[in-house]
Amino acid sequence: MSALLEVSGISVSFDGFRAINDLSLAIGERELRAIIGPNGAGKTTFMDIVTGKTRPDSGRVLWGEHFIDLVGMDEARIARAGIGRKFQRPTVFEAQTVEENLHLALRNPRGPFAVLFSRRRPEDAARVAAIATEIGLAEELPRLAGELSHGQKQWLEIGMLLAQEPRLLLVDEPAAGMTPAEREHTTALLRRLAEHRAVVVVEHDMEFVRRLDCRVTVLHEGRVLAEGSLDHVTSNPEVIDVYLGR
Ligand SMILES: Nc1ncnc2c1ncn2[C@@H]1O[C@H](COP(=O)(O)OP(=O)(O)OP(=O)(O)O)[C@@H](O)[C@H]1O
Prior knowledge:
Blueprint: E1 3-14, E2 17-28, E3 32-36, H1 43-50, E4 58-63, E5 68-69, H2 75-81, E6 83-86, H3 98-105, H4 111-117, H5 122-135, H6 150-162, E7 168-172, H7 180-193, E8 198-202, H8 206-212, E9 215-220, E10 223-228, H9 230-234, H10 237-244
Parallel strand pairs: 3-8, 3-9, 6-7, 7-8
Antiparallel strand pairs: 1-2, 1-4, 4-5, 9-10
The structure holds adenosine-5'-triphosphate.
Adenosine-5'-triphosphate is lined by residues 14, 19, 37, 39-45.
């Protein structure tokens, strides 16, 4: 599998503390990857670096077939390059319908004000319908986003990210606060999404990670401690020691 994202030798310190320590890892095209690890392992900081929120002190973040270095690029440019990030808390427009939320999120070269004040294009409706079907909210299009369940809001936000057509989706702890049925829907959704784009999921819930059935990277003290199938990494004595055995 050729790498879509290649993080190479990145380090970052906060007030002398090395949160990321010579970290290297690669994500393939259309790969589903789970990242696990104890609190403070550097999972959030890793995503902050990839999305341009935090600049590493050293190392490179190479993107795409032209190996563009994302280090030093601002967040908006990285998002436009094709990296979408889903934070833990959903940030949908609660007073708008599901349909309106998706319309607002559609990539539009005319800029944000044009999006707000212009008429909808005919092709947008088809795209909104396709995204709603993909995230399992086709029946909910006329509902206000504020009326959705927690899980449905998370799926809507994923749909809003899909409207930007990312090649890589970073998803932070999707299972948190979800019912068992919502978790099941979410694992199926993430697996389906990874058929067409790369998806990286940071998650603590091991049952959820097991159902993703993908390659797993264990971070510890800002670097990769183990990588492979879930069974492989969870039988690693060091992983048991620092993460599972506690
Ligand atoms: N802006 C910051 N300033 C100072 N220290 C920070 C900053 N961001 C992260 N850290 C520290 O860097 C380390 C890594 O944090 P990070 O949030 O990336 O871990 P994590 O693996 O996401 O943990 P969790 O599972 O708890 O979310 C922690 O010790 C954290 O306190």
